[in-house]
Amino acid sequence: MTSANPSNAGASLSEKKKDLRKSITARLRALDDSYVAAEASRLFPRLLALEEYTDSTCVSLYLSMPAKEVPTFPDLLEAVMTDGKGAEGRARDVYVPKVTGPAPGDMVMLPLSSPEDVSSFPVSKWGIPEPPLPPSLSPSLPPLDLVLVPGVAFDNKCNRLGHGKGYYDSFLSRLFASHAAAGRARPMTIGLALEEQMVASVPVDTFDLPLDAVVTPDKVYFRKDRERKGG
Ligand SMILES: Nc1nc2c(c(=O)[nH]1)N(C=O)[C@@H](CNc1ccc(C(=O)N[C@@H](CCC(=O)O)C(=O)O)cc1)CN2
Ligand SMILES: Nc1ncnc2c1ncn2[C@@H]1O[C@H](COP(=O)(O)OP(=O)(O)OP(=O)(O)O)[C@@H](O)[C@H]1O
Question: Whose CA is nearest to atom 4 of ligand 2?
């Protein structure tokens, strides 16, 4: 856990977010891939044991990028797509993000049919494999019951700082609205974080949505006032 930089106490919220992004990104860049892989293998059993995960049938998972974040493939992706604890013994349906433009609303979730498909995906400018856009895109959002969320920094209240484009904040608010309109339970949101990404306090704007939980290699943090599944 890192303390916030005391020298930016008077800075605006967006400057504080920028400073924190910069310092955590620099720290992450210094980590070895082998260390990150070993930390991820300590984290996965904690995630896979959560009720929010074992109860899930339709999951959004990010495909990790080279700038360090908890790697999600091949290991986690394979576990999620093949251990099939979903309803009626089905394997989970998995959706991955694709950025379609610069605005916060320009991120869609597309279905992934097999873990092997990832190796054929073109890589975006940030080094993220992304599925090609289908010829016609369904206007409705997928019936996700769990979203595994990437980020730059997290705190123990389950606040999250992303890369500053607002893609996930916007996506999650649309997803919650679409589930509510369809009478579906709100999907659970879980952040995946290396210990190096945990900070004392993430600066938050009104539009920033706290996650239900943050899983690290050492610990699971739950949001205090989180809504339990179905409640
Ligand atoms: N693996 C993964 N996939 C993801 C995300 C993510 O955070 N991780 N995203 C989550 O939104 C979306 C992609 N958004 C991104 C937005 C900006 C940068 C980025 O590196 N931007 C700056 C650096 C900003 C910074 O972090 O300081 C750059 O352009 O250099 C990366 C991903 C969708 N897919
Ligand atoms: N729900 C939303 N709808 C529309 N715009 C939003 C929403 N949430 C955030 N934004 C816009 O996105 C921009 C970036 O927000 P912020 O710095 O919180 O991104 P982030 O959470 O770090 O990034 P990301 O969600 O892409 O990982 C802000 O200028 C904000 O106005």
Answer: 170
